[in-house]
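Cont'd.
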Amino acid sequence: MILEAVELCIKAGRSKAFEAAFRQALPLVQSFDGFISYELQRCVDRENHYLLLIRWQTLQAHTEGFRLSPQYQQWKSLLHHFYDPFPNLWHYELVDLDS
Amino acid sequence: MILEAVELCIKAGRSKAFEAAFRQALPLVQSFDGFISYELQRCVDRENHYLLLIRWQTLQAHTEGFRLSPQYQQWKSLLHHFYDPFPNLWHYELVDLDS
């Protein structure tokens, strides 16, 4: 399993509109092959900041599947205009401390 | 529930030692009042980077409980010397998209 994590900074005053657009965009990713789950987390320390966590079955499900799909083009047009600056996105895998 | 998220950059060549120290430090936080769960995630895009996610029952369990405790002093001395630069730590709450 791969965790995609991206810290989002939303343009001032646009957080409510971003959340509404995110609700609209969500089925695009939720219905995609390899999607497992998501969390949209709102920062309590800084206004207009969010942490988006999406879990994928594999890295490729995100990078070669969703990111290259027509659904991603719709996701982009619904969401990317809210971001300032444009965010960095990283992938992670769980550290197994028992091994 | 509150999510504590912190992106860790570990000094070059120290990742394995950091993971071992983290394993040692973990019971300090796991046994603390208000702790729910943790994930230590290793970045697959950038060497020496991790995302630490800790879930707390309340913000205060972290900021006024753990951070002011003797256990945190032990946590610091086990882990903080691995970080370069010293990380920013943020708290988040889940956005309820159904409301």
